[in-house]
Amino acid sequence: MPTSLALPLPAVGAVAASPVTAAGVATLHRSRPLRLVATPAATASSPHSTSTSAVSSAPPSARDSRKHLAGRDGAPSEPTKPRVFFLDVNPLCFRGSQRSLSAFARWLALFFAHVSLRDPVVAVFDGEGGNEYRRRLLPSYKAHRARGVGTGADSRVVDVLRECNVPVVRVHGYEADDVVATLTEQVLQKGYRVVIASPDKDFKQLISDDVQLVMPIPEIGRWSFYTLRHYVAQYKCDPTADLSLRCFMGDEADGVPGIQHLVPGFGRKTAVKLLQKHGSLENLLNTAAIRTVGKDYAQDALTKHADYLRKNYEILSLKRDVNVQLDDSWLSTRNTCNDTSVLSDFIHKFNIEGRS
Predict the structure, then answer these.
(1) Per-residue pLDDT band at 72 (split at 50, 70, 90)
(2) Which pTM value belongs to this model?
(3) Whole-angstrom distance between the N-terminal and C-terminal Cα of the chain?
């Protein structure tokens, strides 16, 4: 007899009315339920291969074709680029600061049902020792964070993703952010668009016409898209300046201090104004080294603390040269035949075991 499980899954997929940043994953608010029905006839997923970088491939299926949209006169317009989703798994395995596989299960069910649908999805995990490079530069970097989601939790999450025909990628010595940034470049070169599913604001430095984010918003219990338009409306500058701006402002969540504790009067408004004129942190610092670029306090900060800002840049910039190669099979339409049974069973276990 099939089992059914009601989940609070609100409608998801519309662009957020205003930019919102989520710091973590919380319990979903109540809304209309979506019923998942597990049947014994569910198709088993195909075997997956692993390597030293723990990469597994989803089974090949028909390539996601480019769709033509009708113009106002009824004639077909330029074909839209197909999408590839990168799922940043680690932050979805937490409810606030506590590990929670039930939170992961619900966000994943929402993601499959209302966001990615049948588009290709690649799940990315932090590699062992992924933080060490940045911690050598700055000991406070993510010093308060739990290291990984735990061995037991990690294996169960990986199993669920593979059973839902999602390739899983982990590269030793690199954070998931760096792996996603590297693979994003490779996907764009193949003519696809990229959607990064994560609450991590580090990914904002990648936003462009062909790269957008979709973030879990605990307050409303849904995923919400965040685009180039949202970024410009929120920060009043182009995403190409995002990394440079964050070097001034720091990142409290990651333990990266900004310049304010050294120069209290140097705030976001000053940084945005200077970057709008000079384009990037390096251009700004090079110019400040030979001539005055702003008021005395700003000029003094740029000349005295140039090395400090450059170190922030090295810590906060996502790497694009990770030793990982995109597999063309990852660009295939995802086989969703196992979603209902796998997710129902996964969530049912946590209803019995309690909060993980």
Answers:
(1) very low
(2) 0.77
(3) 27
